[in-house]
Amino acid sequence: MPRERFQFSGSDGLELAATLDLPDIEPVAYALFAHCFTCGKDVLAAKRIAEGLTRRGIAVLRFDFTGLGASEGEFANSTFSSNIADLVLAADHLRQTRKAPTLLIGHSLGGAAILAAAARIPEAKAVATIAAPSDPAHVTRLFADHVADIRAQGTVEVSLAGRPFHISRQFLDDIAEHNLTEQIANLRKALLVLHSPTDDIVGIDNATRIFVTAKHPKSFISLAGADHLLSERRDTDYVAEVIASWAQRYLEPQPASAAEDPGARDVVVQETRHNKFQQTVTVGPHRLLADEPIPVGGDDTGPGPYDLLLAALGACTSMTLRLYAERKALPLDRATVRLRHRKVHAKDCAECETKTGMLDLIEREIAMEGTLDPEQRQKLMDIADKCPVHRTLTSEVRIRTRMTGS
């Protein structure tokens, strides 16, 4: 997937290093990602979540705050306020060069910063926080033993996650002035709170306070078993999938081309290269993962090829029943289609024309709810065989394949 690296001017006039992760197709939306305290844009959680979102068509901008990663300046000179201002400037840069972010995402202290910056990014429709503190001053617990020295000396070097950082009195004073309660209550954007109940850095009670304070629409997702930094790939993949699915409800879809035939959209399938079989499936604005079950070497992160085939037949069957029932005013309340696929010996299939070798058998069960009489039920069963996908599967099908690209 394309990745652009560049710099933009931060609130102190310093150059901040940024990365824009882009999907292979036109983005359905742009997101702005704020990383955790002292982490940097290239921390595993930020990179993996950005990659997961781009696989689902969302472009992601992430950058290093002052004094971190490849950005200019001294970390000791940064504050929570300067981080907020830099997020707003990053959104401005996207607005000027691409398109303003409609999705805001923040991890840990970055989540608190995103909540504080959201009101100053008017195009944003949805905000997602990951393991975020409800009060930015929570971060001082990481160096609680040094707070008195920092206030007395002005600046003190502390060790965080095994690395030295200079924390200033200015940082402490600034972060103490920020109370997110009013900003969360007046967010006026859809909010998704993701948090692990076993987070030992930022406790789950922070998620509770954020969620209770916020007004609807709001959602909460438990990241059971995850650590604060989301060090396991399965956790970052899950977070990306959940955010992308949730955000679809609030982000404006890309308008279809006037010349595009809505009944003839391309289906694009591409390897993610994250495991042996995982694929992204793109159909217009819709995106999903395909995979294989664990017993055959996959990670079971999405339906398998035959699952998708059965889903197509099942969906087509149910839609066909609905259309017919409405046209004939039949009291069909709901149709449920259950399907299975297996290989069977041809000799065991009495009604099959093929008599030798193995063949594919799709078993389809249809349950109909409603006050239908036996004749109406039978008519609907007959109509089920007339759904377009059923006809495609049972007629002659030719597949023409050609090579494109290099």
In short:
The protein is of the alpha/beta class. Helix content is 31%, strand content 24%.
Q: What's the structural blueprint in terms of helices and strands?
A:
Elements: E1 3-9, E2 15-21, E3 29-34, H1 44-55, E4 58-63, H2 80-97, E5 103-107, H3 109-117, E6 126-130, H4 147-153, E7 155-160, E8 163-168, H5 169-176, H6 181-185, E9 190-195, H7 204-213, E10 218-222, H8 233-247, E11 267-271, E12 279-283, E13 286-290, H9 305-327, E14 334-345, E15 358-369, H10 374-384, H11 388-394
Parallel strand pairs: 3-4, 3-5, 5-6, 6-9, 9-10
Antiparallel strand pairs: 1-2, 2-4, 7-8, 11-12, 12-13, 14-15
List key phrases describing it.
about 400 residues; alpha/beta; Rossmann fold; GMP Synthetase, Chain A, domain 3; 3 domains; three-stranded antiparallel β-sheet; elongated
General description of the model:
The protein has three domains: 245 residues, Rossmann fold (3-Layer(aba) Sandwich), CATH 3.40.50; 30 residues, no CATH class; 90 residues, K homology (KH) domain (GMP Synthetase, Chain A, domain 3, 2-Layer Sandwich). The chain has eleven helices and 15 strands. By secondary structure, it is an alpha/beta fold. Helix content is 31%, strand content 24%. Strand 11 and strand 12 form a beta hairpin.
The CATH superfamily label of the largest domain reads Alpha/Beta hydrolase fold, catalytic domain
Radius of gyration, taken over Cα atoms and rounded to an integer in Å: 26 Å
The CATH architecture of the largest domain can be given as 3-Layer(aba) Sandwich
Strand order of the largest sheet: 1-2-4-3-5-6-9-10
**Level-1 CATH class name of the largest domain:** Alpha Beta
- What is the total tally of β strands? 15
The CATH topology of the largest domain corresponds to Rossmann fold
SS-based structural class? alpha/beta
> Which parts are unreliable, with pLDDT below 50 for 5 consecutive residues or more?
254-260
Number of domains: 3
Span of the ends, CA to CA = 16 Å
Overall geometric form: elongated
